[in-house]
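in:
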């Protein structure tokens, strides 16, 4: 679907001030627009649709109809829904392709969802691989490899759940996973700090390969970039808040969620990490995410595929899902890498 912006757009005005950060103009010469493929995964109701509309500043996805109560017990199978939105980020044209996965985690058998997503990611690699092998290349070939996967974590305030651990461990070698706490305004600032810490402890303990803002291995990064990456690492997982309405404050539009006791400002760094995450995705790290997809993740897959080794435990740490489920249930921290 092409940009489906509607008239009743309550996430419209751009209200954040764009401050250029290092690396943000690296791709300014991409005249045709820089493609960026972003996948959204998370259980139902964690705010994926609202996040997408807030990110794009328009109603890309119209609000869904409330489910029919008679059908509520039937778990809909997971789908891949595609949205394409042309964005202008600080003078740089970005062709944002979003793949949403409604229905993820709805059933009792999450294994099917994990397999479907893995298969989707690998199919895009296979397409590139066969295009590379053609004698005559197709000039219109569209590279659909997913550059980043935002994984929405339920704001329980406890720690990661089995579904989170399994999904991220399994796909971390196939895509840049950026963990995000959905509906994070349901936690107090103190709860949020503790929750973030627990999640990062789990990520370390289970050896989950998330995108952790690495510095360039050959020390190419300048001091400012190294500092910025350290700051972003410390923010993980990002606390996301989606916009519900736009209010007028001192003559300027402010994107908020309103509550009886006050408002949460979506673009205010003191209220949520939304603006930093948006900037990472569409500006400061768009190049890194694309390059890592090509140079590291795709290359690994390509090597495995050509050597007939794609199902190896190294690339798929949960290949023996039954075993790993049992291990984790009994000894939550015993499978540390
Ligand atoms: N408190 C809070 N509520 C949110 C936030 N974002 C979305 N919501 C609300 O959560 C509900 C679900 O939001 P959606 O954006 O539809 O969630 P989704 O992940 O797309 O859900 P499905 O499409 O059903 O899988 C709606 O009532 C939203 O208004 C948020 O940041 N904070
Ligand atoms: Mg949705």
């Amino acid at each position: 679907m092409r940009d489906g912006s509607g008239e009743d757009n309550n996430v419209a005005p751009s209200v954040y001030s764009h401050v250029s950060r290092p690396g943000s103009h690296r791709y300014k010469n991409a005249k045709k627009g820089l493609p960026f493929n972003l996948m959204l995964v998370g259980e139902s109701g964690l705010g994926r649709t609202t996040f997408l509309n807030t990110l794009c500043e328009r109603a890309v996805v119209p609000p869904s109809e409330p489910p029919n109560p008679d059908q509520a017990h039937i778990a809909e199978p997971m789908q891949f829904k595609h949205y394409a939105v042309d964005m202008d980020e600080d003078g740089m044209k970005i062709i944002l392709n979003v793949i949403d996965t409604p229905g993820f985690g709805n059933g009792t058998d999450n294994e099917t969802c994990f397999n479907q997503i893995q298969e989707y990611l690998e199919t895009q690699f296979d397409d590139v691989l066969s295009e590379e092998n053609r004698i005559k290349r197709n000039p219109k070939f569209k590279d659909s490899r997913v550059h980043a996967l935002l994984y929405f974590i339920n704001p329980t305030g406890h720690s990661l759940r089995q579904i989170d651990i399994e999904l991220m461990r399994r796909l971390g070698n196939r895509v840049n996973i950026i963990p995000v706490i959905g509906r994070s305004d349901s936690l107090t600032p103190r709860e949020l700090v503790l929750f973030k810490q627990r999640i990062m402890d789990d990520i370390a303990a289970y050896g989950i390969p998330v995108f952790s803002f690495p510095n360039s291995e050959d020390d190419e990064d300048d001091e400012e970039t190294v500092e910025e990456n350290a700051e972003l690492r410390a923010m993980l997982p990002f606390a996301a808040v989606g916009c519900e309405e736009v209010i007028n404050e001192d003559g300027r539009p402010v994107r908020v969620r309103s509550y009886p006791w006050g408002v949460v400002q979506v673009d205010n760094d003191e209220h949520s990490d939304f603006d930093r995450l948006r900037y990472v995705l569409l500006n400061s790290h768009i190049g890194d995410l694309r390059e890592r997809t090509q140079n590291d993740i795709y290359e690994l897959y390509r090597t495995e595929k050509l050597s007939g080794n794609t199902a190896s435990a190294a690339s798929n740490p949960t290949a023996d899902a039954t075993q790993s489920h049992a291990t984790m249930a009994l000894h939550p921290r015993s499978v540390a890498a």
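note: The longest strand covers residues 34-42.
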